[in-house]
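Long-time lurker. I teach an intro course on protein structure, and each term I like to show students one example going from raw sequence to a predicted 3D structure in token notation. This year I'd like something fresh instead of my usual example. Would anyone be willing to generate the tokens for the chain below so I can use it in lecture? Attribution to the forum is fine with me.
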Amino acid sequence: MSITADKSIDCKGLSCPEPILHTKMAINSLSSGQILEVVATDPGSVNDMSAWSKRTGNPIVGSAEDGGVYQFFIKKA
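-- Reply from a regular --
Happy to contribute to a lecture. Here you go:
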């Protein structure tokens, strides 16, 4: 994936709702337009991130999965 993140957080090993809570705290530290990379291993994070993105208006601009590791790029609205 060729998206450059302004900040990255590692949520591997955490289960719901921890990845979302960490994402919320991290996105709050960014300026509008910046990109947050989230890496998680919880399969539920796929649906959780999508729902959180729609609810908060911070779009997922890229995502990938490799061997049970999920990567999300979220743009701060």
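Some talking points for your students: The mean pLDDT is 96. Helices lie at 18-28, 45-56.
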